[in-house]
Every structure is written in C-alpha cells, then in structure tokens.
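Structure tokens please, single chain.
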Amino acid sequence: MRPSFIHRYPVASFYILALSLGAGTVYLVVQGVLPSSLALAAALSASIAGTIMTAVEDGRAGLKLMLSRLLIWRVGIGYWLFAMLFILPAILLGSMVNPLFEGDPLSFNNMKPSFEILPMFIGFFIVAGLGEELGWTGFLTPRLQARFDALTSCVIRAILGGLWHLPLFLYSSLQHPALADFPYAGWIAQKGFLVAIATLILVFLVPWSVFYSWIFNNTRGSLLLVAVLHGSEVWVAYWMVSTGINPGNLDNYWGYGALMVVAAIIIISTNGTKDLSRNYRRVVHQPSLA
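Here you go.
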C-alpha cells in the first residue's frame, strides 16, 4: 500500500493544517463570527496541528514522547535565566536608540508595577508558548533537523512562520478594526507590505528561531524551556506599554531587532551551524523511538 500524503510529506501536511486553522480563525474574526478578542486564538493553530500530526504519524507513543518534553526542567539555571530574562535587557538597550531611527523616546512616567508582569507572563506562556511551540518546535523542528543542519532548519522555520502570519498581514493591511491590537497595520502603512513581512522574517523570526533551537538542542529537547522563552516576549509588550513606546511604529523595533540579530550571530558562531550546540547532537525525529 502506498503511504498517504500525510505520511509521505508530514512537514507539508503540518504546515497546511496550521495555516488553515490559523487563517480560518482570523477569517471568522474579521467576518464577525468570532469576537475580536479571539483573534489571538489563531496562535493555537500551530500546536493543534502539531499535536494532530504527531498522533497521526507516530501514534500514542509519539504523543507521549512529545508531551514528556514539557516535563524536562532540570537543565541548569543559565538556560532558565536566558529563557525568562534575556529579552528584558535586549528590549531596554534596543529602545534606548529609538530616537536615532525616528522612534519614540523612553519615558518612565507611566511605569507599571512590576507585579503586573506575572499574570501577563502566564498568559503569554500559555497562548504563545504552549499554543505555538508544540507545533513549531515539538513537531516541526526535529523533522527539519533530521534532514538539515540546525541553522538551515531555523531559516526554514522562520520563512514558514512568516508565511503563517500572512493572513494577519493581509487583513491588517485593510485596517480592519477587529485586528486593531496587532501592530502589523501600522508597519504596512509606514513601510509597505513587502518591507513589513521581510522585516518580520529577517529581523525577528530568524533570530528567534535560532534562540528556540539553541535552547531545544542544549536542554535535551525541553519544550518547557522553549515555551517559557516564547512567553518571555511579554517583556516587549510590558516595556512598550509602560514607557510610552508605540508598538504600531516599526521604527521602534530597529534597535531591539539589531540586538536580536547580534545575539543570534554570537550563538551561531560559538555553537556551530550543525547542531547549535557544542555538547549535544541536535534533536531529530526518530520514528522508531515513537
């Protein structure tokens, strides 16, 4: 019996499913079927698709293996500090040079109490971290790394992730009120559609993909740490809201983005492109283990 399309092309099948679920959610929000508050639920499409595809391809054993990676927490304090706090000095230092790029200057007059970060962090960890990384890192990354080196896998993931954002970009370009909380409309209005999507991929998604894979490969495949790292993006939102920076102005991201690129280059140069690790082999999908 010839294998089905899903089993022959698991990466393509995952991506089609994730894109369909994400775009479908955004479409229902734009059409008024779902409230605008649920637009962020489109992020869950990646993990939903990854879970479904893991069950189809590897069965119960594969699901057990993937979910067990959420329990890998004994990885060393350094990785925990990076996952939780690295983004804070990066966004702080990057925002200090905003005026050089015609961005907004920092103002600490409206600084929010620090305790407010905890519920925000939990929310980002659940929606952005767990909602996306079971798919992008739990399912996709090991399969890409089984065919390509770690850095090439990061670039492929970043491109796919950028295209996965296209429905938000397309509807945001129409200035749809249901998507007013997303910064993409402002980016597109300032720089144009192609510049906005290219910036998203090259300045943000490629460096972040390097960070995710570096953590994943150096912690024996800890999805927990990857989800925490993804959730740490809350620092960007918290910092911008607290210091009067407009998240819809792309010029406010150039300094921060430049630091992300520099940090990614340092990780690549010190860990190598093959595994993004000096001590471990990159995590790859092995059907026999599942």
